[in-house]
């Protein structure tokens, strides 16, 4: 798995001789698995053509804030929401100054104000400009606001001088960009996640199942790794690759999932149950393939044990987070599940809306815990998973102070 797999990077390119390196950087980010969209300032186009970056990123490059055609394809607020991270490389002295003072006088500075994603700058400028008190003051302001600075490096410069101000090499910037997603809020914690559907056999070739793709659970497993946790993922049958640094246990039926979860729950600090477990299985699955002779067929079903309830009832239960998949009365049903299953938290999602819930690439979640709740607005599942993991980490640490 690549270090930026599934991440969406908005690459800002500002005016400076180092802008030629943005071509290589775009390639490196894509090689690391990221989707890249490029926004250039007017000054940058004097150093590298939008066409070059369009060819390398695979998307039209955005230049203007008020471009009706481009806005129709993806509005600037949508673009700001699209990004999992904003990386400005090279970042000129002028751009740093404008960002430090909250200007929104072009597309890139506006996007930086409008995004909630982490922002990183790779400064590149003449060494005197870098050392100038104004630039250093802007650097401090930006860092105080949580904006990360990658570099600059020291060395010989295009202007013939030597000193600090060289942009870092694209490979190094791509490696640092991967660290933007690492929060360490679950450093050292052991996290168990369930994901995907279960299959309950009716006969050797047929089964009862549901439309869970596993995307939500896999995104949570990945987000927990980024947060520094050791992650075990108990997965029903899905066609997703195992996220890097995740120990995956494959199961098929609800009973197999229950056994696998219980085998790991005792040694876990947190259990997040995103799997869509079948509530019922066939009472007596046929040993041979059922023939279709009969006009009417009755299937006798029996309840599966509830995995979450078994975990929260353990003497040394982990911090237990259940999901609630609802088509109506989200809050009441989710809160009822939280209480009935004695959960520390429940993540409620609607499963009757196109594009979210089962099999969608996006989701929207309402989190409930004793005395609190938080709305996680509609977003791609990987981003939502990171937000969910950060709230879980907060509540977990509140329950288990160091
Ligand atoms: O996999 P995706 O395509 O990305 O879709 C994500 C999702 C919609 C499946 C996911 O976000 C989700 O809602 N998962 C829970 C689905 C579900 O079965 O919800 P439920 O309300 O029926 O169950 C409540 C909770 O009890 C769940 O945490 C479930 O894992 C758990 N459960 C249910 C039955 C059972 N026998 N044992 C359980 O532990």
Describe it.
- 34% of the residues lie in helices and 24% in strands.
- It has 14 helices and 19 strands.
- Helix 1 packs across helix 9, helix 5 crosses helix 8 and helix 10 (215-226) packs across helix 14 (381-399).
- The protein has two domains: 2-179, Flavin prenyltransferase-like (Rossmann fold, 3-Layer(aba) Sandwich); 190-399, CoaB-like (Rossmann fold).
- With 402 residues, it is of the alpha/beta class.
- It has an eight-stranded mixed beta sheet with strand order 12-11-8-13-16-17-18-19, sandwiched between helices. The chain has a five-stranded parallel beta sheet with strand order 2-1-3-4-5, with helices on both faces. It has a two-stranded antiparallel sheet with strand order 6-7.
- The mean pLDDT is 95.
- Helix 13 links the parallel strand 16 (319-326) and strand 17 (345-350).
- Ligand PMT is lined by residues 194, 196, 212-217, 254, 273-277, 279, 304, 306-308, 322-325, 337, 349, 351, 357-359.
